[in-house]
Design goal:
single chain; 233 residues; alpha/beta
Length: 233
């Protein structure tokens, strides 16, 4: 299915990978709707996304069901039905068992799994067998590492949600599970890391568009731990 003239909802569109995804979708002729949380992020995306002016941005608390339902009504009024969903909303968190309390654990589940669930639930009736949903899990949900317990579990919940939605909906539901994506925000947070092991944003974006448009792929968790990152000179 070609993405041209389709309507694609991208949650977390102002995050680290968001501008790469929205730019590619706009380049392919899609009508792109993006969500964000803070006004600072909304302002920053004007410089980080080449086609920010072509994206319809909405500030939404995706952990709040009433807010998501109201957002869905607005989208339907302004754009008609949504054809595809890309769920980027989330956020990284550190902490092992000793550093993670109940609030931090619940917060991670809400940030990753609840946001994806409520978004898909609000738009489920608009999706068809030609629709694609791409959620974002993590390599850590498949091969956990110590020190990021709540994050691992939150992304693991997204993995299970993906597989469960795939048997619930007519739409195709897949997830991408990257290791670390080579974006400026991650380099700033981990300046001493080996960037050569990270995945290039272009590889992630290519997989997103492939999963949205390929009607033969569904129910897959695509683990991405390479991708020939573009190294700084």
């Amino acid at each position: 299915m070609e993405l041209q003239n389709s309507t694609v909802l991208v949650t977390g569109a102002t995050g680290n990978i968001g501008p790469y995804v929205t730019d590619q979708l706009v380049d392919q002729g899609a009508d792109v709707i993006g969500t964000y949380v803070t006004e600072t992020a909304r302002d920053d995306v004007e410089t980080s996304a080449e086609h920010a002016d072509a994206v319809s941005y909405h500030q939404v608390d995706l952990t709040n069901q009433a807010a998501v339902e109201a957002f869905a009504e607005t989208v339907t009024e302004e754009h008609g039905s949504v054809d595809h969903i890309v769920g980027l909303a989330g956020g990284f968190s550190m902490g092992g068992i000793n550093e993670t309390d109940g609030d931090a654990f619940e917060s991670a589940l809400s940030l990753h799994a609840t946001t994806a669930f409520l978004t898909v639930k609000a738009f489920a009736d608009q999706l068809s067998e030609h629709s694609g949903i791409v959620l974002f899990s993590s390599d850590r949900a498949i091969d956990p590492v110590p020190g990021t317990l709540a994050y691992n579990v939150g992304k693991g919940a997204v993995r299970t949600l993906t597989e469960s939605l795939d048997v619930e909906l007519d739409a195709r539901v897949n997830a991408i599970a990257p290791f670390l994506i080579d974006v400026p925000g991650n380099r700033e947070a981990m300046p001493d890391a080996d960037f050569s092991e990270w995945t290039a944003p272009a590889a992630i974006v290519d997989e997103v568009t492939h999963l949205l448009s390929n009607e033969g792929v569904t129910g897959q968790i695509v683990q991405m731990t390479g991708g020939q990152p573009e190294l700084e000179a």
